[in-house]
Specification:
Shape: globular
Distance between the termini: 49 Å
Order of helices and strands: HHEHEHEEEEEHEEEEE
Largest sheet: 6 strands, mixed
Strand content: 25-35%
Oligomer: single chain
Radius of gyration: 23 Å
Number of strands: 12
Helix content: 10-25%
Strand order of the largest sheet: 3-4-2-1-12-11
Length: about 290
């Protein structure tokens, strides 16, 4: 081959490679190289299965959850055989079954049944996941019980954690429901507990991406939430309100992520009736640090 012909061939090949590089979107190129993994995460306070109209309707709630098309969902105010208000159902298990997902339930309260031999009456938070749950833990944080006549702040369960492998990428998902009272003192203690537990769990699984999902019962600028933003990013910055569902006036429901997670988009679907809160849905990209398998 002549020098002229060889030079023309090399230039043609270089041009073709340049065209491919320009034509391929960066995100797609990263995904093809295995550098990142997409994930859709949501949070929803389901009001024990009752809508904003006060009517228990699990079909309506399952439809609202299905519409989110999320891979992982944190739920708050979840009844498991609690009583008549939720027809004695295992609400976490029922929703998981209807959505074809796995459920991990972390009770805040676990009480003896009214009738001997029946299941325990439980209420708490849950995670629904399309991915297998590798491990699950129910952590204690400071709480002011609603079941005691004269409660005092004390450690109690109901801060749920699950560990997942998302296409080989380790993920720790925490779901919480912070205190609802106007006095922020208990929420302040809960935030301190949350940061301590998440730091400890992060050290136990180096390289894992972390998510904290939940109803924080405080708006983003609340002073008691400020320490969280040292460790986590509020994925819903600029998103509309979430409560009350019919006509939201404040944003108290959150998807938050560790700072190594890339947030692509966050929405608050206009769902006014399935619960007294609106859900929050976030699309993220997880950097892939090490090769792995599902």
């Amino acid at each position: 081959m002549s020098l002229r012909a060889r030079t023309f061939t090399q230039l043609s090949l270089a041009g073709a490679l340049l065209t491919l590089a320009v034509a391929a979107p960066p995100a797609l190129a990263d995904a093809e190289r295995g550098h990142s993994v997409p994930l859709r995460v949501a949070t929803y306070n389901i009001h024990a299965g009752a809508g904003s109209d006060g009517v228990f309707d699990l079909d309506r709630q399952a439809a609202a959850l299905r519409a989110l098309d999320a891979d992982v969902i944190g739920l708050q105010e979840v009844d498991v055989h609690w009583g008549a208000r939720s027809q004695g159902l295992d609400v976490a298990g029922e929703l998981a079954r209807r959505l074809g997902m796995r459920a991990s339930f972390a009770p805040i309260y676990s009480l003896d049944p009214v009738t001997a031999g029946e299941p325990r009456r439980e209420y708490g938070v849950a995670v629904l996941s399309r991915f297998p749950v590798r491990s699950a833990t129910n952590h204690e944080i400071t709480r002011l019980s609603t079941q005691d006549e004269n409660p005092v702040p004390a450690p109690a369960p109901g801060f749920g954690e699950v560990t997942l492998k998302v296409r080989g990428v380790p993920v720790q998902v925490f779901v919480t429901h912070l205190d609802y009272r106007a006095d922020p003192a208990v929420r302040r203690a809960q935030v301190a507990d949350t940061r301590r537990i998440m730091a400890r769990e992060r050290a136990e699984l180096p390289g894992a991406h972390q998510f904290l999902l939940g109803d924080f019962n405080a708006e983003p600028s609340a002073p008691e939430l400020a320490p969280l933003w040292n460790d986590l990013r509020d994925a819903g910055t600029g998103a509309p309100g979430t409560y009350p569902a019919e006509a939201p006036v404040k944003r108290i429901d959150y998807v938050t992520v560790s700072k190594d997670v890339r947030v692509r988009d966050t929405t608050v679907p206009p769902e006014p009736t399935a619960s007294d809160h609106r859900p929050v849905v976030t699309d993220v990209t997880l950097p892939r640090r090490t090769p792995g398998r599902d």
